[in-house]
């Protein structure tokens, strides 16, 4: 399975046969590299793509997009051709919001045996403000906040050259959290799995569990021993859970 849409990057090139497709959505300011290495742990019959929004990595020369509804529509157009059979949408932080919206718009009629949604490291829309409070910060204030949060973005924020390259995409992504305004209760029928970091103070389990209101297809939450960026620092643990889910979907 392949795709030529620029918003999707194939993480498992060369796999001619796929019984399940995983589509990964990164956190704000992140790109496909967040999910580097996933292909080494995913089963051979699982194909994987990562969302690559403009303004980052090989699309760095393109202007970032800050219109949430436009991005959701483009994602649906890009993902529809690769979601014809068994599919898993995995989103972390901001990516969880975008993945949920795509699931609602594209997979709303799918049933439990067809698809699964992962919402990782993100409070539910029913657990506080859905828009990012950081969007009104000056550049210097935003960089200082990133440095104080730790994780991969803190390292980039501490490097002046990389910080200037990262800022436009990050600032645009802060507006994409508005996509959460369109998330409806019982928006999907597929199972939803909420991942949260044991040491992520901003996303405690009590904020993750209300994602159960988004589906009629069952919900469970899973704790990962990490902070907010466990999707990278504990990538092996995360991929193990995703791969087990994919194998269950295809009956392995």
Task: Detail the topology: elements first, then pairings.
Blueprint: E1 8-10, E2 20-25, H1 38-41, E3 46-51, H2 68-79, E4 86-92, H3 94-106, E5 115-120, H4 139-149, H5 152-157, H6 160-176, E6 192-197, H7 205-208, E7 219-224, H8 230-233, H9 235-249
Parallel strand pairs: 2-3, 2-4, 4-5, 5-6, 6-7
Antiparallel strand pairs: 1-3
Helix pairs in contact: 2-3
Q: How does this structure look, described?
A:
It is globular, with a radius of gyration of 17 Å. The protein has a seven-stranded mixed beta sheet. The chain is built from nine helices and seven strands. Strand 4, helix 3 and strand 5 form a beta-alpha-beta unit. The protein is 34% helix and 16% strand. Helix 2 crosses helix 3. The longest helix is centred in the middle third of the chain and has 17 residues. The chain starts with 7 loop residues before the first strand and ends with a helix. It has a single domain, classed as Rossmann fold. It is an alpha/beta fold and 252 residues long.
Key terms for this structure?
single chain, 252 residues, alpha/beta, Rossmann fold, 7 strands, 34% helix, 16% strand
What class, by secondary structure content? alpha/beta
**Gap between N and C termini:** 20 Å
Overall shape: it is: globular
Query: What's the CATH architecture name?
Result: 3-Layer(aba) Sandwich
Q: How much helicity do the residues have?
A: 25-40%
- CATH homologous superfamily placement: Alpha/Beta hydrolase fold, catalytic domain
CATH topology: the name is Rossmann fold
Count of strand segments:
7
> How many structural domains in the coordinates?
1
Tell me the radius of gyration. Answer: 17 Å
Question: Which strand order spans the largest sheet, edge to edge or round the barrel?
Answer: 1-3-2-4-5-6-7
Report the mean per-residue pLDDT as an integer.
88
Q: What is the name of the CATH class?
A: Alpha Beta
Low-confidence spans: pLDDT under 50, at least 5 residues? none
């Amino acid at each position: 399975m392949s795709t030529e849409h620029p918003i999707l990057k194939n993480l498992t090139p060369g796999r001619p046969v796929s019984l399940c497709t995983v589509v990964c959505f990164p956190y704000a300011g992140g790109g496909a590299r967040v999910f580097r290495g996933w292909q080494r742990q995913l089963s051979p019959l699982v194909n994987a793509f990562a969302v690559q929004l403009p303004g980052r990595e090989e699309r760095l020369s393109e202007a970032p997009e800050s219109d949430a509804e436009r991005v959701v529509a483009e994602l649906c157009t890009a993902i529809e051709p690769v979601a014809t059979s068994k599919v898993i949408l995995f989103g972390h932080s901001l990516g969880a919001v975008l993945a949920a919206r795509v699931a609602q718009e594209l997979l709303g009629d799918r049933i439990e045996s067809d698809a699964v949604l992962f919402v990782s490291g993100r409070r539910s829309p029913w657990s506080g403000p859905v828009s990012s409070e950081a969007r009104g910060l000056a550049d210097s204030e935003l960089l200082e906040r990133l440095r104080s949060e730790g994780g991969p973005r803190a390292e980039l924020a501490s490097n002046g050259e990389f910080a200037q390259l990262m800022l436009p995409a990050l600032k645009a992504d802060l507006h994409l959290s508005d996509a959460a305004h369109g998330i409806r209760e019982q928006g999907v029928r597929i199972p939803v799995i909420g991942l949260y970091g044991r040491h992520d103070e901003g996303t405690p389990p009590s904020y993750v569990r209300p994602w159960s209101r988004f589906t009629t297809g069952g919900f469970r939450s899973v704790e990962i021993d990490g902070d907010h960026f466990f999707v990278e620092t504990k990538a092996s643990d995360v991929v193990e859970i995703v791969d087990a889910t994919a194998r269950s979907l295809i009956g392995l």
